[in-house]
Amino acid sequence: MAEEAVLIDNIAQIASDVARQLATARVINASAFISTPLTYVGGAPVVVRLDPVGSKFFVSDVGIGAREADLIGGSLLYRRIAKQMAARFGVRFDKDALFEADAAQEELVASVIAIANASKGAVDQTAFRLAEKAAQDAKIAVKERLQAAFARELITTDIRVKGSSNDEWDFDAAVKLPTHLTLIHVVSPAPTSVNSAVARFLDMSDLPDETRPRLVGALQDRSRTQHVKLLQRSANIIDFTAAPDVWQRAAA
Amino acid sequence: MFHRATAIAQLTVLLAQPKTFSEWPTWEAGGDGQAAHFKLVAGLSADGVDIAGLRLYGHVRQDGFGEDMVLMLHALLAGRWRPIERFEYLPLQGHWNPRDRRDFPARIDDGVSHAHRFADNAGLGLSAFEDGNLPLARPLEAPPSSLNDFRRIVSEALNVPDLNDVQWPEWQRRLF
Questions:
Q1: Which among A158, A193, A217, B84 could bridge A188 via Cys, Cβ 3.0 to 4.6 Å?
Q2: How far apart are the C-alpha atoms of A80 and A135, rounded to whole Å?
Q3: From the CB of residue A5, how many other CB atoms can be counted at a distance below 10 Å?
C-alpha cells in the first residue's frame, strides 16, 4: 500500500517520463530520424525523416513503408493503398515514399504524425489484404482437395444453408452424397474462425435427423487451433492436408 | 512453392544445407529521391539443383552508405514471397518483440544490427511467416564490425558461402 501511495504521488512524473520515451530522435549525415511509437506488422518502429529545405522541412517515411510491404510480398498492392492513405492524411505519395515537402517548423509534430500514420496504415492495409487473398486461396485449395476425393459433380463451393435457429450460414463447400449432404468448413487458428465454426456447426447439428447434414471441419493448423474439442462435439474434424481417403471417411 | 503442412520441416532442412546462387546476383537500382535504393533478388540451388520457391533478398538505401541494409531469405508460401529469416545491419528501425515473450529483449534500439532467425520464429507456427513478418528478433551476438563482416555472418547463418563474393553496389567500393 505504501508503495502504491508513492506511485500515486509520482504519477504525473512517471507519465511524463513514459511520454518522453515514446519517441526517440537521432541525426545521421545531417538528416534527423524520429523513431515513433507506431510499429509496422512484425514489430519494426515507424521512422520518419526530417530534412531542412530553405526555411521549411521535407518530412518523409524514406520509403520504409514500401520496403516493409515488399518484405511481405505486397509491393504492388502497397502502391495503390499508399496513394489512398496519402490522400486521407493530406500528405503526398510518389513511387515509394510518403512525404510532405514544405512543412513549417511549427507544423512538424502534425506532419510527423500524418506521415507515420499514413505509412503504418498503408502497410497494415497491405498485410490485411494479403491475408484476405490467402483466405480466398484457401477456398480454392478446398475445392482442389475435394476434387481429389469426390467426383466433381458432387461438389459445390460457397454455399449458404439454414440452421435450426433459422439463421443462414455460409460453408466453404458441400458434397452431395447418395444418402446425405456433407457440409465442409475450413477453420483457421484465429479465434474468430473457431468461434464462428462452432456456432454454425452447433446450429446445423440441432436440425432434425431427416434434414441434418454431416459436418466436416478442416483445420488449417491443428497445433495452433484452440478449442478443437469444442469443434469435435458437432463435426468431424480433420486436417486440411489430410489424404483423400480421410476426407472421404469424414464426409461419409 | 512450399506446402503449408510441410513448409517448416522442409525449410529447416534447406537452411542447414550448403547453398549457392542459381544465377550470380547483382544489385539493381530502384526508387527515387530519399527512397532510392539498391535491391538484390537471387534464386538459390543446392547440390546443383535449383531450389524452387527459395531466394535471397537484399535491400539497402542508396544514401545510407551501406547502413540500413537488409539481407533475408524469402520463401514462396501460399503463392506469395514471405520472409523466412532476416538480418538487418545498422538499421534505421529497431524492433519491438511481442510483450508476452520475455525471453527476448522487449526492444532492440534503432541502429542495432539484429536478426529475425527462422528457428526462433518457426516456434510461432506458419503465421510468423505468412502474415507476421517474423515478429521475434535478437541483436546479433557479436555485432558486425563492418558491412563485410555483416555479410560473413549472414552467409554463415544462411549457409550460402558464395554470398561473401557478391560485390556491393557500385558506390560501396570506395567506402569499404
A1: A193
A2: 21
A3: 9
| Inter-chain residue contact A96 with B35, CB threshold 8 Å | yes
Q: How many CB atoms lie within 10 A of CB A25?
A: 11
Grid cell at residue B119: 528457428
Cross-chain Cβ contact B34/A63 below 8 Å: yes
Q: Please compute, for residue A108, the number of CA atoms within 13 A of its CA located in the half-sphere on the CB side.
A: 15
Which segments within chain A are labelled E, that is strand?
24-28, 31-39, 45-53, 56-60, 92-94, 97-103, 155-162, 168-176, 181-187, 214-219, 236-239
Residue type, A4: E
Q: What mean pLDDT is reported for chain A? A: 90
% of chain A at pLDDT higher than 70: 99
pLDDT at site B1: 67
Distance between CA A222 and CA B126 in Å, rounded? Answer: 11
The tens digit of pLDDT for each residue in B40-74 reads: 999 999 998 899 899 999 999 988 878 999 999 99
B4 and chain A in contact, CB less than 8 A: yes
What DSSP designation does A84 have? Answer: H
d(CA B24, CA A63): 27
User: Cα–Cα distances in Å, from A82 out to A53, A97, B144, B161?
Assistant: 24, 9, 34, 38
3-state secondary structure chain B: CECCCCHHHHHHHHHHCCCEECCCCCCEEECCHHHCEEEEEEEEEECCEEEEEEEEEEEEEHHHCCCCEEEEEEEEECCEEEEEEEEEECCCCCEECCCCCCCCCCEECCCCCEEECHHHHHCCCCHHHHCCCCCCCEECCCCCCCHHHHHHHHHHHHCCHHHHHCCCCHHHCCCC
Q: Are A48 and A64 spatial neighbours (Cβ–Cβ below 8 Å)?
A: no
- A93-110 average pLDDT score: 94
Q: Does B59 touch chain A (CB under 8 A)?
A: yes
Q: Taking CB atoms and an 8 Å cut-off, how many pairs form between chains A and B?
A: 127
Is the minimum CB–CB distance between A41 and chain B shorter than 8 Å? yes
The set of cell numbers assigned to B20 is 549457392
Interval A23-82: pLDDT, tens: 999 998 889 999 999 999 999 999 999 999 999 999 999 999 999 999 988 998 999 999
Verdict on whether the full-model pTM lies above 0.80: no
Q: Determine the residue among A18, A21, A24, A28 to mutate to test chain B binding: the one whose Cβ has the most chain B Cβ atoms within 10 Å.
A: A28
